């Protein structure tokens, strides 16, 4: 009976240990890809490069997509702003989001 309950618990523990690595890898990829986003790119081009945004804010004449960068305890958004024409107007990568260093602390 103990073995029957132990296997799901062990599986859950292994999954929890692997999750922080996935977060760090995704964060690092966001940082690398943010550096490749250029003013004038379409939303479709950005989506192909960065994937689906984790957040989206619409204001008069612009839309801002955000992506997470950082560790589980210290996250900073990467923001990509689109003008009324749907093209990238500006980017705001987190200061460390150059892609040269992997985030730590996950």
From TrEMBL:
UniProt KW Transport keyword: no
Gene3D superfamilies in alphabetical order: 3.30.1450.10
Domain Outer membrane protein assembly factor BamE per the UniProt entry, residue ranges: 29-90
Keywords: Membrane, Signal
Signal peptide from the UniProt entry: 1-24
Official protein name in the record: Outer membrane protein assembly factor BamE domain-containing protein
Keyword Signal applies: yes
Cited InterPro entries: BamE-like, BamE_dom
Domain of life the protein comes from: Bacteria
